[in-house]
Design a protein that fits this description.
The chain is α+β, with helices and mostly antiparallel strands. The chain contains 7 helices and 13 strands. The protein is globular. The structure holds zinc ion (2 copies). One zinc ion binds next to β12. This is Galactose-1-phosphate uridylyltransferase.
Length: 367
């Protein structure tokens, strides 16, 4: 890895290209000859949203496990109506809350029979649902900035809570919107999984930043934002607090990354002002995505530095927390699953141009 992040654009507008992410080494194929006609609209896969007996709707608080956090601007009792955002344990959790020591993998004996018997750890962790608004067929970006800010405040408060829990090494906040992005409930929600382990992608990012610092004496994210801003074409928005851009080695068409302008590794250390400003920016980005791509399925996820775990060697140098937004215009196919590489038909320079065109003004308007 050289001292300067090399994000050179290709001159040839038709030839496919392998690109490698400078931080994670993730390889993608930018296959512009396969490009969709830019900005074709895709039908939502959640076009009808019957509320039926949706457990996330206001008034059905008893249908979820008791809440662990909520924002009620007018006050009110736990698990009552009147909330803006509500966080509850997942009723069907991937992991279970456990007590006792932090599990860690043992050294392999090399005997395959042992591996198949013993290479397992108790599935302890926390799995929570952040219900993003009380009404069924809506989402925070259809409300105002205050609603969006409340969602990003809820993320921070839950991460602060997990940071105080012994044995939790990492947490991922993520959103699945639309069935093809993995959502099982149409009511707008996101999720948080907090674990005693560090997931491989996060570890690669943390270690990549540390390595970059050791080899070059420079902070990776600071250097990356400098490189992206001097290239310019992939920047979607730069506010006083954040930069949003389409990554050089985007895995998905219209993939986006949002990162704070100040050095900040942990999202749980974000200020009230940053949380509000992030909500306002994300609301506009979600509106732009609606305007540009229709109600497309998408994921986003938050990568943040360690939560004070004995498993983790302090905060990685030059790492900044960031949100990665991945519209899901196409499902993951055999090549992606089989190779760990991605084929992306929309070059990020082109994607950023489209994002900019559809970005609403920062004036509080809702569309
Ligand atoms: Zn609902
Ligand atoms: Zn990341």
């Amino acid at each position: 890895m050289g001292g300067k992040i090399d994000l050179k654009p290709t001159d040839d507008r038709s030839h496919p290209e392998y690109r490698r992410d400078p931080l994670t080494g993730q390889i993608v194929i930018i296959a512009r000859q396969r490009a969709h006609r830019p900005m074709s609209r895709f039908p939502s896969d959640d076009e009808d949203l019957p509320s039926g007996d949706c457990p996330f709707c206001e008034g059905r608080e008893t249908m979820t496990p008791p809440e662990v956090f909520a924002i009620r601007p007018e006050g009110g009792a736990r698990d009552s109506v009147g909330w803006q955002v509500r966080v509850v344990p997942n009723k069907y959790p991937a992991l279970m809350v456990g007590a006792g020591e932090t599990p860690s993998w043992s050294e392999h004996s090399g005997h395959l029979g042992d591996l198949l018997q013993d290479d397992a750890l108790p599935g302890v962790g926390h799995h929570e649902v952040v219900i993003e608004c009380p009404d069924h067929a809506s989402s925070y970006h259809r409300h105002g900035d205050a609603q969006a800010g409340a969602v990003f405040l809820a993320y921070r408060e839950r991460l602060r809570c997990f940071a105080r829990k012994e044995g939790i090494a990492s947490a991922i906040v993520f959103k699945n919107s639309g069935r093809s992005a993995g959502a099982s409930q149409p009511h707008a929600h996101s999720q948080i999984i907090a674990m005693p382990l560090v997931p491989p992608i996060l570890e690669r990012e943390w270690r990549g930043c540390d390595d970059y610092w050791r080899e070059n004496g420079r902070h990776y994210f600071a250097n990356l934002l400098d490189a992206e801003r001097s290239h310019g074409e992939r920047i979607v928005e730069a506010t006083d607090d954040f930069v949003a851009w389409c990554p050089y080695a985007s895995r998905f068409p219209y993939e986006l990354c949002v990162c704070p302008r100040e050095e900040q590794a942990r999202y749980d250390e974000a200020s009230d002002h940053q949380v509000e400003a992030l909500g306002a920016l994300m609301r506009r980005l979600m509106l732009a995505m609606d305007n540009a791509l229709g109600s497309v399925a998408f994921n986003y996820f938050l990568h943040t530095a360690s939560l004070d775990s004995p498993n983790v060697d302090g905060v990685p140098a030059g790492f900044r927390w960031h949100l990665e937004i991945t519209p899901r215009l196409e499902g993951l196919a055999g090549f992606e699953i089989g190779s760990g590489m991605y084929i992306n038909p929309v070059p990020p320079d082109m994607a950023a141009r489209d994002w900019r065109r559809y970005m609403p003004a920062a004036d509080g308007a809702t569309s």
